[in-house]
Amino acid sequence: MFQHLPVHTIRPLTTAHLAQTMTLLSLTSGELQQQIEAELASNPALELVDEIRCPTCRRLLRNGGVCPVCSRPSLKSEDDPIVFVSTRDVVSGFGDVEEKDDYEDTGSASTEDLATYVFRQVAPDVSVEDRGIAAFLLTHLDEDGLLTVSLEEVAAYLHVPLTRVFGVQKIIQRADPLGVGSCSTTEALLVQVDVLRESRHVPENLERVIRDGMDYLSRRQYHELAKSLGMADEAVRECARFIAENLNPFPGRSSWGDIREPSGPQTQIFYRPDIIISRLTGEPDSQLVVEILFPLWGTLRVNPLFKQAIRQAEDENKESMKEDLERASLFIKCLQQRNHTMQRLMAQIATLQRDFILYGEKYLRPITRAYLAKVLGVHESTISRAVANKSVQLPNRKIIPLADFFDRSLSARMVLKEIIHQEARPLSDSELVQLLAERGYEVARRTVAKYRAMEGILPANLRRTG
DNA sequence: CTATGGCACGGATT
DNA sequence: AATCCGTGCCATAG
Hints:
49% of the residues lie in helices and 8% in strands. It has helices at residues 15-25, 29-42, 95-103, 109-122, 131-138, 151-158, 162-173, 185-199, 206-219, 222-229, 233-246, 304-312, 315-352, 354-359, 369-376, 380-387, 410-422, 429-438, 445-455, and strands spanning 46-49, 52-53, 60-61, 82-88, 275-279, 288-294, 299-302, 391-393, 399-401. The structure holds a DNA duplex.
């Protein structure tokens, strides 16, 4: 939005400038909006004019954040593999943000996101009095998406009847990810079966196998399980296969496949991204379009009338007005700097991680923040701040944290998953180390074990035979 | 003896 | 300065 101002006018002058730029850099677009609004309200020298220009061609844009000239495929002929578009925030207003803040407890970042995501879904289905229960349950999920408290405890703690808690839990369990908010993996699986049954065939006695056989199942002792249930071996195996392919005992884990067929694009919006990356055309060598979302509509500038007013002002007011003017122009400079930095950062990321963006997690290249800092000529803490707490929407409509671009192990984990998925017999961790090394991933045996745990893959002696 | 999980250390990240 | 992650060493299970 501010890119139409020449970039070379940006230079850090004072420590105040630097400090403020740092702060702004670490804000998400939502927080940025609050910051800007506060500044607008408190500083008469600052002005928001209702016009916006295309950052690339400086055309005045009338109705919409996308430039009709630059965003068209006609730009395809250019060499630059990346197109930048700076858009206003098109996803939504901020009406629902306060709601979220009310209910959220402090928790780890990952569960917070899951909790918020689920809460959004269930809020309309839960009566207002019961929303507190929903919020309480959702703030007591572990990273697997299972409850860390018993329903009885919740009922006692909130002084409500157990049946109400139970009712709320039922609603939550049916939200995406299916089975979230269950008390145990068994319960989560049962919920998933229940829902799946509506749309497709499930093996006979599946519920029984799950309810009574989790111990056996996790050890792959199908024969023993079959005996204890009085079922045929093959029937039990069929159930086990169905579970492995269609169900997820840990609803909170993101590893549940990339595609969720039944859900439309809407349900995939975890939270609003700060950056959207899409492809300009459908072709494989298409340019990438990087949109850095900006939460305001219009252009921010120093009010020229205010400048004039200073000259005519009386002496005692002059000082404070000058101060305001200073603050305003500093603020704008900092915003420019922020956008400039974000843009350069994303340019690097989009170039380096092109394969990841287009073709999936397997192709993520391990990039460190320190390296990018060096390339961009900024301090590494700058990168840290810029990356923290921000999210990106990829062309496949998945929204991921910006920090994922720096995950050193994601790629290795994906390859590991793939190897294990295709293995003919359960491979031991040391053998997996070998196979990973052959594909260029040098990791320690111990680390393979950790990756397995992260992906929820059982150790070799408990895995199913091919 | 082999395969794994727990604990702790060192480097990177924040 | 505090925290996270990969890794080495050791105890334990089979």
